[in-house]
Amino acid sequence: MQKVTNPVPRVRHPDWLFKRVMAMDDKFKQHRITETFKPIEKPSSGRDGIMDLEDFGSSPHSNGPSRPIVHKLTKSNKGKRSFRDGKTFEEQILEIELPEMKPDMLTDYHGFLAYQKIKWKRQRLERAQRKALGQTRARGPTGSLSGFIQKQSTNILTNFWQIIQIVETELPGEFRLWILIDKTLHSVRLSVPRIIYVNTRVEDADHESRRFPMQKVVRTLPRAHPCMHLYQFIMGESLYQKEAKNLSSFFSHPNVEGVYETQLPLLYRAIINLSCVCSVNNRAKRDTRHLLALFSSVHNRVFVFVVDAPGQKGQMPNMSKIYESVKAEIEKVPELPESNRRVNKTWNYFEQLQFDVEYVSNEKAAFKGFAKCLSKYQDERHGATAVILHSPRSKQKLLESMGILSDFPLISMPCLKSTKPFQALAWQSTAGRRMLSQFLTVGGWMTEQIALARYANVPVCNIEQDSPLFVTDVLLARRLQHHDMLLWWSPSSKPDLGGREDDENLSGMEELQDPNINVPGHYETVCLEMDMLSLAVNTLIQSNLINDLEGGTDSVLDTAHTLEEYNSGKVSNVITLSSGTASAQAFAIIKSMVKSWAVERAETQDHFADSLMNHFYRWLTNSNSRLYDPCMYAFIHGLMKKVFLQLVAEFKRLGSRVILGTFNKLTIVTSKTSVGNAYAYCSWIIRHIHSKALFMSIDLIPVYYWEQLLWMDCANYGGIICPNPQEVQEQDQPTLLTQVNPHIHMEWNIQHYLPLALHQEFMSTIGEFIDQIYKFSHQKQLATPKSLKNGTANGEDADTVAGNGGTKAERKNQEVIAYKKKLISQQMSRRLLKVFPEILAQKRDSAKDPQLAFMFAFPRQPGSHLDLTNPPLELVKSIAAVFGIDTSIEREVRVLRKNLLDLIEVREFSPESLFQNPCESFVLRGVICAYCSYCQDLDFCRDKHLLPKINKDTGAMVMGAWRCQECKEDYNREAIEESMIAIVERMVGQYQTQDLKCVKCRRVKGDYLGEWCECSGGFVTTLGRAEYLRKMRVFENIAEFYGLSFLKEAVAWTLST
Q1: Which segments constitute the DNA polymerase epsilon catalytic subunit A C-terminal domain (predicted)?
Q2: Residue-wise pLDDT tens digits, 912-956
Q3: How far apart are CA 875 and CA 918, in angstroms?
Q4: CA 43 distance to own-chain centroid
Q5: Using DSSP, how many helices (H) and how many strands (E) does the chain show?
Q6: pLDDT tens column, 534-546
Q7: C-alpha distance across the termini of the chain, in Å
Q8: How many CB atoms are located within 10 Å of the residue 320 CB?
Q9: Are 723 and 694 in contact (CB under 8 A)?
Q10: Strand-pair category, 665-669 with 527-533
C-alpha cells in the first residue's frame, strides 16, 4: 500500500491485499482525469481577462470588447459547381501554391494556420474534382485493381490486355497479373475461384438452399462416363480450404458417382481461361449514357436529365430549335390513308417548348431528379393525370427505381429496341432528335389506345402490349361467361381443366404439320406468286359448308343450336380428336365472335375488327394466349387442311397448277405465255374463287408475275419477274415479252454451302441457262405472225388454237425443248469443260497458298449436316441437280454430269456422286414482333435475312440482328430461344411416348405385353432414332451458330441421355 515491496517474499500477502496491490501496479489501469489535469486559480477581475471564442486570434491589446462576427454560408448555383469564374478545377488547383516551408505551430501559430488554410482549400478542390469524375475517394494504391481502373479507365475499355505473367501470391486463390497496355506495364490483383464438378446418381432438389451454391449443368465426362446429374460448385479458394472436411464428407456420399477437376491448379485454370491476350468483358463496356425527359400536356416546360460521363457537361444542343424542326418535318409528311393514319385527338402539342437540362453522372441521380419533378407536379394539382412510359425497360424496373410512379396510372407504350448505339461525340443531338420524334407520335398512339379501350370495353391502362391477343381473350371470355361456361383461362400453355391438365393435354405434345405442296420444275409459262390471308377466319365462318362438300351430316359444325339443346343432350357437345376432345359449344361461340368481327368490318369498316381478324390465327396458335386450347387448335387446323385442299383442287379445275402451296402462300403456273394474257387470266380466276361460298373470306394478293421460273423449293429458285404486269396488259400487243434485257432474280441456298471461290461460277452458269432460254422465247414471240399475236376472233389465246399438225403451243414447246437440249449438250458443256480444269488447278495451288486455301474451304452454316471435302465435286453435283429439275433435258444433263465427273476422276454411280441437299431446315412458325405485332415464319437455316453476311475479303461472318421485315425492329432473342427450347422438350416427350407399329401391317400396337403382332410382324417406333437424332443435331447447329447457350445446353443434355 505504501509502494514498498514485500520484505519477506516467502510469506505471501493475504488474498485481499495481493489483489489490491496487483490492481495498483496494473499498467492497463484506467487513470482519473484529476491525476493528469489540475484546476487553475480563478482570475480576480471577473471577465476582464477572459477572451471570447469569436475573438480567437485577434490582438489582445485592442480597445473595448470584440464584437462577435457571424458568417453566412451560401450554396453556389448548380450550374457553377464545376467551374468558378470560367475556370476548371485543374486551373484553380494550379493557381493555389503552398509555401515551401511549413511554419512551426508552437513558434508561429498564425503562419501555421495560414498554411493549413491554403492546404485545406487545395484538398477541397481536389475532392470536388474527384467527385465530378465519378470517383468516391482518392486514387487507390498503384498495385490494386481499383486504383488502376481509376487511372486508366479509358484504356481498359478500349485496349487489349497483353498478359506477361501470372504469379502466385501467399494468399490462397490470389494471383498477381502482370499486363502490358500501350507499352506500359501494370500489376493487377487476380482472384481465381475454385471450380469443381460433382456427378450424382439422384437429383438434388434443394441444391439452391445448400450452404455451397451450385448449378446444374451438362458436360461430357472423361471417357464418356454417363452424365447423370452434374452440379458445378464455384467458391473461393480460402472457403474451399476452410471447408475441406465438410466437402470431403459430401463427396464421399454413396450417391456421388464422381468429383471432377479437383486436381486442376488454379494457376493453370487462369492460363486456360485467360490465354495471353484478354480484354474487359462487354458487360463492363456497356453504354451508360442515357437521356430521360419528362413531358407534360399541361405546360410547355420539359425536364431533361442527361446521364453522361463526368466532365461532359454543356454539350446538349438547343432542344427548342430541334423540337421546332422535327415538328415541321412531321407536318410536311403527306397524309397517309385513313386506315393507316393515327390522328391525334388526345391533346394539342405546343408550338414551342422550354427545356430545363440537368447533367448527372449516374442513373440513380437521374431517377431521383425525375421523382422530384413528378412530386412537384403532383403538389401543383393539375387534375387527373396518367403517366405514359416510353422506355426499353419494363414497367416493373421503372417502378423499382421511382416509387412515385405508383401514385399515377401507368400506360406502357412500345419502344424501339434496335436503335443504333450513340456515337462517341455529340451523341446528345442524335438522342434528342430521336426522343422528340417519338414524343410527337405519342398523341396519335394514345388516341388509338383510347379508341381500342372503348371498342373492347376495358380500362385503357390495362391494355397489354400485345393488344390483339389480349382483346381477343377478353371478348371471348365475356361470351363464354354469357353462355354460362367456365373459363379455361391459364397463363401457361396448358388450359385450366380443373386439375386434369397433365392428363388431358397430351395433344399439346403433338406438333401439327401444315400442308406443304412443292413441285420442282422449269416453267416457261407465266407463274403467279400470291399471298393468302385469312384462311383460318374463312374456315371458321364457312365451317358448315365443309361437311356438305364431303357428304357428311355431322351437326358439330352447325352453330344453329341453343344452350338448352347442348345441355339436354340433343346435340353432341364433344368433338372427338385423335388425342383429345374439344367442346362443340366453345367452337360455336368462337365462330359467332369471328362472324361478328366480319360483319363489323363489312358494315362499318372498323379497323379494330379487321385487326382482330388478321391476328385470329396467331391467337389460335399462340400458347401465350390466356384462352389457348391445343385441342381446339387441332380441330380448326384439320378444317383448314380440308379448305386448303379444296382450294388447290379449284385452281386445278380452272386450268392452273399449284407448284407451291402453304397456309399463307401460293404459287400457280398458268398456261399463258405472255404476261398480258396471264394478268387478265389471274384477275379473273381470283374473282371466280371469291365468288365461291367456301372461299369467300380468303384474301388472295398477287405479289410477282414470273415470266420464267426455275423452281427447286422455296429457298432455291431463279427466274425473271415482270416489273409492271398491269401496264403490259393495257398495251396493244400483250403477247410480246416485256423485257429485252431482263434482270434475273435468283435465290439459291445451296450456293452458300459451296466454297467462296465457286459462288460466281455457279451463279453465272445457272443465270446463263435462264437468260438464253428467255431470249430464245423472245425471238420466237417476235417471229409469230401478227394475226396470231392478237388472238382469234373469239378471244382465245393463239397458243391454244388447234391445227392439222398439232396445236401451236405443242409445236412451240417442242422447239423450246430442242433448243434447251442443244444449249446443254453444246454451249453449256463446252463452257464447263473449259472452266473445270482451271478450277482443279486452283484447287491444287490452294495447298501452297493460304489465301486460295481459304477461298476453297467449305463454309459452316446452321443447316450443315454433311461432311463436304471435294469442292469441284460439290459444284458438279449442284449444277447437275439444278439442271435436272427440267425433266425434258434429263438425258443431256446426265451426259454433262458424267463428263464432268470423269474430269475430276469420280465414278458416275459412286455414292459420293449422288446429290443430297446440304442444308437442313427448321422453321419457327408464328414469330411475333413485339413492336408492330407482325406475324412471320422464320427459317433459321435458309432465311437470308437471318443468316450472317460473309466478308469475301476476310471470310469473317458478320452476324446481323434478327429484325422484323415489316418495321425493321429487333426480335426478342430470348423469347425465340425459349420457343426453341419448348419445341425440343416437346420433341423429347413425343419420342418417349410414341406408339409402336407393326413392320408388316403397319398397325399400332394395342396391348402392353405382346412381343409380336398378330401378323407375326415385329414392332418398331413410329419415329426412328436416326430421324430423332437428325432433328436434334439441327437444333444443336443452330444453337452453336447463333450463340444460343441455353438451347445448346438443353440439346446437349437431351443427346447425352
Answers
A1: 318-720
A2: 889 998 998 888 877 777 666 677 788 888 888 888 776 655 556
A3: 12
A4: 86
A5: 34, 29
A6: 899 999 998 888 8
A7: 87
A8: 14
A9: no
A10: antiparallel
